[in-house]
Write a sequence for this structure.
């Protein structure tokens, strides 16, 4: 059978693979075809370009290559403590090579007096430097040249056990290049390569696997990263343009209700940033095109009122609004917050989540369909079939990186003819590179300013041993009339141990503050009990709120001025920031105290230091991305948009920006990619659509 594309050839047909290894490569590394193998890039390289003298070697070096002779061997220890030491000298100084395994084989294979090249990671053992399990090769003309970077490929334990290691993969790559090199075709147009100073595809692929020099390796990485980011951005921007072009939007421009709200009920002056994003959103909703916009802003920047004001425009136009949140608790909190404003304006609003009883759903469904119900808040229960709006004008989606492109579009499709306007909201800022990728098909509005008069929250990190001091501080704040949150990690609501910690914490607080009324709230309480406790705290009847992260979002008690976070090392950065955002909402100076034990990992330390250092959610989001990598950020795992082969969103921000600008320029000038010069791009998009998993997962 003739293959349309040589790189679709099944991997088993590569010399040196065969049916059995093919199965392993498929299962372990998802390598099915020649194309998959050539895109199985090394994750690092061993620098074999330089020989070190033994005197230079120290344990801070990653991998080193030295040349010399073994002067002696010695076996030390008995049984499973047995190790072989080879004394290795380059004529001037000497070091030790150590083996814990395969000792007999090594003794048999390696002889004193012969010149070898040894390669490995130096470590310090007392005063001496050694390399454990070095790679040893007799000196040859070839390895003496010392002009290679050896690729190191991702490999699994199973593969290693079956003798397929990084070296084997490298050999397969050599074989692949032998048969495939002539088939490699360019995938970026010439003018773009020139404009971006990128090397061609063949050179890039060769040098990503077998870099000749450090410079060529860099050039290869740049080229392949750019290409990867470019096609993702091209696809996203194209989605955006198609939507703007094809999807009509409802036109809303009746601002009477709005004027009434501004005149009679606006509780405070809006910040300039709030006004700006409202303008941006209004322009969209008046434009006749469907709005798809991301609204982001730091914790406490006032997104709720912006959402409400946007809903007003739609309601003024005889249409309805919906807000979808990722969890039940979040939905409840949005409902509570928006209801305050809706009630002032006499606007009907309801909550629809999985736990709303059938008998209560029925009337909601009916009123919704008749158009009597104006605002519906809920979880993904909103996208179920039987939820029908009379006329949905605006869908607000509170994402927290959880829904992704695919689910979002379900809500749009609630109106058969004209899609509703879509506003995606996130609870905390998202790093720029993530926003461009996860939300690259949306316009972005950013509230980059907090309401006036907010004092930055003072954050400190305390060890559990300072508990008494912390309690003293809590008391002084309560005496000033303030209220205090004490939050315990309860990642999984069913975790018994976490619940116990919370209960213990509650008890010790009760003992330390016998005269102070204390509330407790956690996920296993009945909703009424929870609401009751919350309400007591909101009214100021209780002074301390011991709780799990259920209070993470939305709770608004301006009088609360202290946030104590227990086991702070167990929280992610953006969650810590979100929690801290529960205080500092009033005019008083607020405090956040991060409690931990002495034992802390390096990443935990960085997280805590970051929290102490800055209140800026945008800065925190960037640090979070660097620490965790995009794949680990909350909820992004499933999105697939971040399954990048070579680019790294935490490091390649500049390249991403360039790729996006390039893609944008091309599409602005040639939206359908019909011009000759873009023919290559069109073919590439079409061929990728047919084969690669990546695209189907982000769209
Ligand atoms: P978030 O963006 O975190 O959702 P909220 O919408 O909950 O923030 O607003 C945080 C607090 O700030 C609320 O108490 C809200 O009433 C108040 N707020 C919002 N905008 C302003 C403003 N322009 N001036 C004063 N207070 C404001
Ligand atoms: Mg909010």
């Amino acid at each position: 059978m003739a293959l349309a594309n040589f790189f679709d050839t099944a991997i088993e047909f590569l010399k040196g693979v065969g049916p059995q290894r093919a199965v392993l490569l498929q299962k372990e590394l998802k390598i099915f075809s020649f194309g998959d193998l050539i895109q199985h890039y090394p994750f690092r390289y061993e620098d074999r370009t330089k020989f070190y003298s033994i005197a230079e070697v120290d344990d801070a070096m990653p991998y080193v290559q030295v040349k010399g002779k073994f002067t002696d061997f010695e076996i030390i220890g008995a049984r499973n403590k047995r190790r072989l030491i080879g004394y290795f000298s380059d004529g001037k100084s000497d070091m030790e090579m150590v083996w814990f395994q395969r000792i007999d084989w090594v003794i048999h294979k390696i002889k004193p007096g012969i010149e070898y090249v040894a390669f490995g990671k130096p470590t310090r053992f007392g005063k001496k430097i050694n390399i454990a399990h070095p790679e040893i090769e007799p000196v040859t003309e070839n390895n003496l040249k010392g002009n290679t970077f050896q690729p190191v490929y991702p490999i699994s334990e199973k593969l290693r056990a079956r003798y397929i290691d990084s070296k084997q993969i490298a050999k397969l790559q050599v074989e692949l290049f032998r048969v495939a090199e002539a088939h490699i075709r360019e995938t970026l147009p010439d003018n773009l390569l020139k404009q971006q100073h990128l090397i061609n595809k063949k050179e890039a692929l060769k040098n990503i696997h077998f870099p000749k020099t450090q410079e060529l390796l860099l050039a290869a990485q740049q080229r392949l990263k750019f290409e990867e980011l470019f096609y993702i951005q091209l696809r996203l921007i194209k989605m955006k343009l198609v939507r703007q072009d094809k999807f009509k939007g409802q036109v809303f421009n009746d601002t009477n209700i709005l004027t009434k709200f501004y005149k009679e009920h606006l509780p405070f002056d809006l910040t300039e940033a709030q006004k700006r994003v409202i303008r941006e959103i209004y322009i969209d909703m008046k434009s006749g095109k469907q709005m798809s916009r991301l609204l982001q802003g730091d914790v406490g920047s006032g997104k709720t009122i912006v959402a409400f004001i946007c809903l007003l425009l739609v309601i003024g136009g005889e249409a309805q609004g919906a807000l979808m949140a990722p969890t039940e608790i979040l939905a409840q909190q949005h409902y509570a917050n928006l209801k305050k404003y809706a009630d002032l304006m006499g606007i009907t609003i309801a909550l629809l989540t999985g736990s709303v009883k059938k008998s209560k759903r029925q009337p909601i469904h009916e009123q919704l369909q008749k158009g009597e119900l104006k605002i519906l808040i809920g979880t993904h229960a909103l996208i179920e079939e039987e939820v029908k709006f009379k006329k949905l004008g605006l869908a607000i989606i509170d994402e927290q990186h959880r829904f992704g492109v695919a689910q979002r579009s379900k809500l749009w499709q609630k109106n058969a003819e004209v899609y509703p306007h879509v506003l995606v909201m996130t609870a905390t800022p998202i790093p720029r590179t993530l926003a461009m990728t996860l939300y690259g098909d949306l316009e972005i509005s950013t509230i980059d300013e907090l309401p006036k008069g907010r004092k930055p929250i003072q954050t400190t990190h305390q060890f559990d041993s300072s508990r008494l001091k912390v309690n003293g501080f809590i008391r002084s704040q309560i005496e000033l009339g303030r209220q205090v949150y004490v939050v315990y990690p309860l990642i999984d609501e069913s975790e018994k141990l976490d619940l116990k910690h919370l209960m213990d914490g509650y008890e010790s607080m009760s003992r330390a503050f016998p005269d102070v009324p204390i509330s407790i709230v956690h996920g296993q309480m009945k909703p009424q009990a929870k609401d009751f406790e919350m309400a007591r705290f909101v009214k100021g009847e209780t002074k301390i709120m011991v709780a799990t992260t259920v209070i993470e979002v939305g709770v608004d008690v301006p009088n609360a001025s202290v946030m104590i976070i227990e086991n702070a090392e167990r929280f992610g950065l953006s969650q810590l920031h979100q929690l801290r955002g529960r205080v500092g909402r009033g005019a008083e100076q607020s405090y956040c105290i991060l409690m931990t034990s002495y034992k802390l990992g390096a990443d935990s330390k960085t997280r805590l230091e970051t929290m102490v250092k800055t209140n800026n959610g945008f800065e925190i989001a960037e640090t979070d991305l660097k620490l965790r990598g995009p794949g680990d950020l909350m909820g992004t795992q499933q999105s697939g948009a971040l399954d990048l082969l070579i680019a790294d969103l935490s490091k390649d921000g500049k390249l991403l920006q360039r790729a996006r600008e390039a893609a944008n320029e091309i599409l602005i000038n040639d939206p359908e990619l019909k011009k000759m010069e873009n023919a290559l791009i069109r073919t590439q998009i079409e061929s990728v659509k047919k084969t690669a998993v990546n695209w189907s997962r982000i769209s």
The pocket of adenosine-5'-diphosphate (ligand 1) is lined by residues 268-271, 274, 297, 299-305, 451, 556, 581, 585 (CB under 6 Å). The first helix runs from residue 18 to 29.
